[in-house]
Write a structure and sequence with these properties.
By secondary structure, the chain is of the alpha/beta class. It has helices at residues 3-11, 22-34, 46-56, 72-79, 101-110, 122-134, 156-162; strands spanning 14-18, 39-43, 60-64, 92-96, 114-117, 139-142, 145-148. Helix 4 links the parallel strand 3 (60-64) and strand 4. The protein starts with a helix and ends with a helix.
């Protein structure tokens, strides 16, 4: 894709960064700004993140696994509630300090679009954002879960039985 198109796409993107660590929020904001994003909002806990989704209506949220009040998992359960929460299809990139397979599996079941282990690089962040913007995946129901359509073909029934 042409650089100008990427810049234009990034420029119009509204991003919410939800992380309890002020340094991580500042670092992520700096990376997003350097990538061309102009509208970046921050939340320091899960409740503030939910409020920001309602008021700012971001195009994408970068959400930390560990936060006070409501952690990333609890935020995901609330956001992925069609008919209850106003933006259940919001693309979400989950951040964590631990790249455990169990965390990745849990995050996927909760409906995250991407999963990144800290520290993240600007290039990786850009790749994930472009993937979300340029190849959006429709949301589907898998039992009690509401998730992005898996990239590779999987039997959703098998997913439900494991979950």
């Amino acid at each position: 894709m042409a650089t100008k198109q990427i810049e234009k796409a990034m420029e119009g993107l509204v991003v919410l960064v939800a992380d309890s660590n002020a340094y991580t929020r500042r670092l992520t904001r700096m990376m997003l700004t350097n990538l061309g994003a102009k509208s970046i909002y921050e939340a320091a806990d899960g409740v503030a993140a939910l409020d920001a989704i309602r008021t700012v209506s971001p195009d994408v949220m970068i959400l930390d696994w560990d936060m006070p009040v409501l952690d990333g998992r609890e935020v995901m359960r609330i956001v992925r509630s069609p008919g209850i929460f106003p933006k259940p299809n919001l693309p979400i990139i989950m951040l964590t300090d631990l790249g455990l397979r169990s965390r990745v599996t849990t995050a996927i079941r909760l409906g995250v679009h991407e999963f990144l282990v800290k520290p993240i690089s600007p290039k990786t962040l850009q790749q994930r954002l472009l993937g979300i913007m340029l190849a959006p995946r429709p949301m589907v129901r898998a039992g009690k879960y509401y998730i992005p359509m898996p990239r590779r073909r999987v039997d959703l029934q098998e997913f439900i039985n494991v979950a």
